[in-house]
Amino acid sequence: MPNQTGRATLLYHLYCGLTAVAGPLVWRTVRKKLQAAGVSADRQRERLGHASLPRPDGQLIWFHAASVGETLSVISLITRLGKRLPQAEFLITSGTPTSAALIEKRMPPRARHQYPPLDTSGPVRRFLDHWQPDAAIFVESELWPRLIVEGAARGIPLTLLNARLSDRSVEGWKKRPNTARFILDHFRLFLTQNDKTAQNLIDMGARAERVQPGTNLKAMSDPLPVDQITLSDIRAQIENRPIWIASSTHAGEEETVLAAHTELLKRWPDLLLLLIPRHPERRSEVAALVERAAQAVAIRSDGDKITKETQVYIADTLGETGTWYALCPIVFLGGSLKEIGGHNPFEPAQAGAAVITGPGYFNFAETFAPLIETGGALQVQTAPELAKAVATWLSDQSALDTARMAAKSCVNTQKSALDAIVETLCAQLDLTDPDPASSG
């Protein structure tokens, strides 16, 4: 079922020309970031399309995601798809060293990770020549025009999975309807997070028969990993103290969190706040804010222990968030007190936590809506409101248990859709097991 696309627009040709000219500068910038993160020279060259691994024999299904959240969201899907297609191999590409490190720890069977090629002629050609994927699945809003157009030109069936587009992005594409239609016409299937995105894609020029509203794939991801040794160690340090978590906080949010903690300490003098900044490199900045709030701070990356005097513990290490969620059932989720878009509430909910959020969770509106409606999440805006929400759950175990059950129920409801997504992908992308008797 080949795509019947129109002719490339002038704007697309202009994009190709500009990226060709800017390519060397972009490469230098990307290489510096990878070097700073300790990525080896061989792996840096993956951005130029030079693979550091051989292509496996047989059917290869390629998943491309932007960063950490998108990459982790497809792990469960790849695992389930691998059971449905036991002979298939998988390639995962993502652009950040953080996502690469995390995916290596949770790599699904028969999968491997590479950095994606820069969206210019040489890197894209080398990448596709080497990997020759049998299907390509782009996750969320990661749309690279040249990679899409050249991939489809080679007969690779393309899907945009868990599609999510910001209002600004939609309006920008609508101003360029011919180019939007040209790019979108290369996709065989769009599986969106919600009805709004489905309609936006159609309004932008996607063919309605190729668009299917679905659910947020992040709701179906496996729970974050828990290190039992670390969990036991931290529990021993905390002893029987009450605790709450502020996770994935951004600049401008810690002040509100710390003001709420100051208020809570008046009622629970031994209360511990476990603070997880979204960007660990902000640790010094966050620690200074804690000290300015006259609260005693310990920093995990410095090897600090939690003592009886510690009031705020900054958990600034990567890959341990699941362990922290297993530690405490009350989680405020950042990226929401400012207009940032929020973060995935199903991660703490899967761990058995009740969730508190600010109002700025627009990137996860369809995820938070049922959580808030059923009582699995509370919305706050100010420090007094945040303190009141935490106090409610600290002081009323029954209310906390009810909220936790509601949050877990929302997650379980969403998970039932995973098998349907697998079957849709297999049908629309012509993915079949060469040995049907071996499928389970």
Describe the protein:
This protein has 440 residues and is an alpha/beta fold. It folds into two domains: 228 residues, 3-Layer(aba) Sandwich (Rossmann fold), CATH 3.40.50.11720; 188 residues, Rossmann fold (3-Layer(aba) Sandwich). The chain contains 19 helices and 14 strands. The strands form two sheets. A seven-stranded parallel sheet has the order 3-2-1-4-5-6-7, with helices on both faces. It has a seven-stranded parallel sheet with strand order 10-11-9-8-12-13-14, sandwiched between helices. The longest helix is centred in the first third of the chain and has 27 residues. The radius of gyration is 23 Å and the shape is globular. The chain starts with 9 loop residues before the first helix and ends in a 12-residue tail after the last helix.
Keywords:
440 residues; alpha/beta; Rossmann fold; 2 domains; 7-stranded parallel sheet; 19 helices; 14% strand
What general form does the structure show? globular
Largest sheet: 7 strands, parallel
Would you identify the regions where 5 or more consecutive residues have pLDDT less than 50? none
Q: Which CATH class of the largest domain applies here?
A: Alpha Beta
Number of DSSP helical runs: 19
Number of domains: 2
Assigned CATH architecture of the largest domain = 3-Layer(aba) Sandwich
Structural class: alpha/beta
Task: Give the CATH superfamily of the largest domain.
Answer: 3-Deoxy-D-manno-octulosonic-acid transferase, N-terminal domain
Task: Write down the overall mean pLDDT.
Answer: 91
Number of strands: 14
Strand content: 5-15%
Tell me the radius of gyration. 23 Å
Helix content: 40-55%
Strand order of the largest sheet: 3-2-1-4-5-6-7
CATH topology name of the largest domain: Rossmann fold
- End-to-end separation: 27 Å
